[in-house]
Amino acid sequence: LERLVALNEAPDAVRIFITQQAFIDNWNKDNGKRENKFTKQTEQYVRLGRILDSMNLQSDVKAIVDMPVGNDQEEMWEIFQRVYDEIENGDELYIDLTHAFRYLPMLVLVLSNYAKFLKHVSIKWLSYGNWEGRDIQTNRAPIVNLLPLTKLLKTEDIHPPKTGISVHFSGSLV
Length: 174
Prior knowledge:
The protein has six helices and nine strands; from the N terminus they run αβαββαβαβαββαββ.
């Protein structure tokens, strides 16, 4: 969101899909501190809800709470349906997979492709914040642009190999 705001492309609507536990741990904590689960040390913490409030977005920001964790196929389809139901016809999707858990990045990729055809949406941004790859001194993490992966889902750009098992892609992935 910070990057989109900086580019003067703040979205009309922001949807953050969050489990009940993540809501408790990350969205609504207001004491300014929390225990780091890895180091077990107390550290400064600003809850996500407060960060979004401080951005003064002109967007309709909504946390979709009580999302299933995704432990089985039933929960997987509930996640799919609940996210799909939030997408409007013609939406431009800006997707951040940074905190997506387990198979959810794959689900989002499939779901967004599904929505492209049924709701005529376009995927404008698909990214992953590589926290583990951050610069320790600046504490800034690289943001990986995953949007080129969506081009592989355009079946008209895929040509079957003439021989062997190699795959040829016509078009730029950048």
